[in-house]
Design brief:
Blueprint: E1 2-4, E2 14-18, H1 26-42, E3 45-51, H2 57-60, H3 67-76, E4 81-85, H4 89-92, H5 96-107, E5 110-116, H6 129-139, E6 142-146, E7 150-151, E8 154-155, H7 158-167, H8 170-177, E9 181-188, H9 193-197, E10 202-206, E11 217-225, E12 228-237, E13 249-254, E14 265-275, H10 283-303
Parallel strand pairs: 1-4, 2-3, 2-5, 3-4, 5-6
Antiparallel strand pairs: 7-8, 9-10, 9-14, 10-13, 11-12, 11-14, 12-13
Helix pairs in contact: 5-6, 7-8
Length: about 325
């Protein structure tokens, strides 16, 4: 996928959808699919317009997807061009008209814009969907407003999914995402405690820039390495039985395969929470509980074929 930055321009005529797209959930997918449909109908280049960070939202909550994770998912939806805007002071002071003229027309040669009905833009969010439609008519840009998606009576949003993940309800969050929530990074060398217990683990050095993590606990997961998925049990937490760690660790025991995965890139896909993280009295009690966690995970995957789990779209 071609990534355009704030200093780039794009010569081809484009159909654009705009948003933070945190999590790239089913509501975002609806926007992107409509934008692709418009681009095919009008013979335009489909382009996703997103942001490197969000100075307001990031102060309030961690993000479901890092920028790299978000771009990966957007590419999975068939997008070949993505524009990543930098929300600096100059950008934040653009009026709605200046945003359309400078960002959409001059920079991206936009002919169609697809956004949600609650879309706000411009200085202090002074522009709404009606502003966009009015200015679009004046500047010969077609504007399409997409209704939000509701599931079980709730409007699907990144903030809603964020709160559900924080509660530990990963199965519910995954339903709203339309894919599994994951954390990605490079496998780093640990202290070998899992191997000592008889259950070797990989330790994920995850991208931690304001990245949302599930609550501490034990999870049924799928670990993806070299585009291959392996059944796994994952601990998120501080390993209180064996050491008093100050940094949260993500450690996964891969059920299907043994090997040295150090320095390899991996994604851990969270399926379902098994239990809370517990401090045991001794290593024997910990070993027995880990064995139970593995059996619970194996039983889950016996009931749920890997092909039935929607890891991606």
């Amino acid at each position: 996928m071609k990534i355009l930055k704030s200093f780039d321009t794009f010569k081809h005529s484009t159909a654009v959808t705009i948003g933070m797209f945190d999590g790239v959930h089913i509501g975002h997918r609806k926007l992107i699919e409509e934008m692709i449909n418009q681009s095919e109908e009008l013979k335009l280049t489909p382009l996703v317009y997103t942001f490197s960070f969000h100075p307001l939202k990031e102060r309030k909550r961690a993000l479901i997807t890092t920028l790299n994770e978000k771009l990966f998912l957007i590419e999975k939806l068939g997008i070949d061009v993505c524009y990543v805007a930098n929300l600096d002071n100059k950008f934040m002071k653009l009026s709605p008209l200046e945003f359309i003229e400078k960002e959409l027309i001059e920079r991206l040669n936009t002919k169609v814009v697809v956004v949600g009905e609650n879309f706000r833009f411009g200085y202090k969010k002074s522009g709404d969907i009606n502003t966009l439609i009015t200015l679009g008519n004046q500047l010969k840009i077609k504007v399409i407003a997409v209704k939000p998606i509701t599931v079980d009576g709730y409007v699907v949003s990144s903030s809603l999914i964020h709160d559900i993940i924080k509660e530990g309800s990963l199965d519910k969050a995954n339903k709203l995402l339309g894919h599994t929530f994951f954390v990605q990074g490079v496998v780093e060398k640990g202290k070998g405690l899992g191997k000592h217990l008889g259950f070797p683990t990989i330790n994920l050095k995850f991208e931690n820039h304001n990245k949302l993590l599930p609550p501490n606990g034990i999870y049924i997961t799928l670990t993806e390495i070299n585009n291959e998925l392996f059944r796994s049990v994952t601990n998120v937490g501080f390993n209180p039985t064996v050491e008093d760690q100050k940094r949260i660790h993500i450690e996964s025991h891969i059920i299907d395969k043994e090997g040295n995965f150090y320095e390899q890139f991996a994604r851990v896909h969270f399926i379902k929470k098994i239990r809370e993280e517990i401090k045991f009295d001794n290593l024997k009690a910990l070993r027995l509980q880990v064995a139970k966690d593995i059996e619970i995970t194996k039983a889950f995957f016996q009931e749920h074929n890997l092909d039935s789990i929607k890891v991606y779209f």
